[in-house]
Amino acid sequence: MTAPQFVQVRWDGRDTRIEYQHLAPGRRGRPLLVFLHEGLGSITMWKDFPAQLCDAAGCRGLMLSRWGYGQSSPRPHHERWPVDFMHRQAHAFLPAFFAAIGHDTAADRPWFYGHSDGGSIALLHAAAFPDRVAGIVVAAPHIGVEDVSIRSIEQARDGYVTTDLRSKLARYHADPDSAFWGWNDVWLDPAFRAWNIEAALPAIACPVLAVQGREDEYGTLWQIQGIAAAVRQTELLVLEDCGHSPHRDQPAALKAAVAGFLRRHVGFPGVLTTST
User: Fold this and answer.
1) Quick count: other Cβ atoms within 10 Å of Cβ 102?
2) With 0-12 CB in 10 A as exposed, 13-18 as middle and 19+ as buried, what is 256?
3) In angstroms, rounded to a whole number, what is the distance separating the alpha carbons of residues 134 and 205?
4) For residue 191, what is the DSSP state?
5) 122 to each of 22, 77, 88, 175, 210, how far by Cα in Å?
6) What is the C-alpha separation between 166 and 180, in angstroms, rounded?
7) Assign residue 190 a region: left if phi > 0, alpha if psi is -120 to 50, beta otherwise?
8) How far apart are CA 188 and CA 204, in angstroms?
9) Beta bridge mates, 65
10) Which residues pair with 68 in a beta bridge?
């Protein structure tokens, strides 16, 4: 694992300073797995899961904190994310980020592991650039807005105001208000209730592993079932005793499933381990 680095990324009419980190860069010739975090995530909030997964799968890794998160440029407090923010991240930000760090996705097609909002961004990116994505794993992704999602996000808003959630998030974000309110405000915008990406999914050409915990508090199994209905090469994994964060609730089962998925579609031996 290398130390975190920073790169200036020009996208959507702005310059942003983006935090990123390479994992196991010495595994030359092995697939690159790019980690896209959840709506309140960052590089450090992943903790050691990405490194463990890359060891289990025998691949390289790349983590980044998206704009507004971690040590990346914060969102200006007066600015609200637009309803199509995940489309903009998938269509404009990711290509600009790869160009800024000098990674040619045509020559070295990345794989993606996306969690929650990061899973939705991975799906949208794979649909928009089908010849530049080798495969995707999406854990607790969103393809549309459900009532259970809104209820849980409302509860998170109440917790941010009345509990120590803000101080906890400050461990992982230079500006926790930027991270939290950017995510919370757009999800609770009445206009966001119509957000849905099902129509984009059939354009995905790569293999997909869609993962969800049966006790996910932010979405039902309809989310991953909808992916399978639209993308025929989708494999589904439903984890028992698991909520919205499979990498925290069921890390051993998840690592084994992802490593097996990569081996089947890439054909390399891997280093499969079931340690937590």
Assistant:
1) 7
2) middle
3) 9
4) G
5) 18, 26, 12, 25, 11
6) 8
7) alpha
8) 28
9) 19
10) none
Residue 201 has a CB neighbour count (10 Å cut-off) of: 20
pTM: 0.95
154-192 burial by CB neighbour count: b if 16+ within 10 A, else e? eebbeebeeeebeeebeebbbbbebbbbbbbebbeeeeb
What DSSP element (H or E) covers 126? helix 117-128
pLDDT in tens, 34-91: 999 999 999 999 999 999 999 999 999 999 999 999 999 999 989 999 999 999 999 9
Whole-number Å distance between alpha carbons of 156 and 117: 15
In angstroms, the CA 7 to CA 101 distance is 7
* 110-145 confidence digits (pLDDT tens): 999 999 999 999 999 999 999 999 999 999 999 999
Q: Give all strands of the β-sheet with 111-115 in edge-to-edge order.
A: 5-11, 14-23, 60-65, 32-36, 111-115, 135-139, 208-213, 234-239
Which residue has tokens 């996000």? 153
254 vs 33, 244, 275, CA distance in Å? 15, 13, 11
* Residue 197 CB burial class (10 angstroms; 0-12, 13-18, ≥19): buried
Q: Is 41 helix (H, G, I), strand (E, B) or coil?
A: coil
**Banded model confidence at residue 273, pLDDT cuts 50, 70, 90:** very low
Helix (H, G, I), strand (E, B) or coil at 80: coil
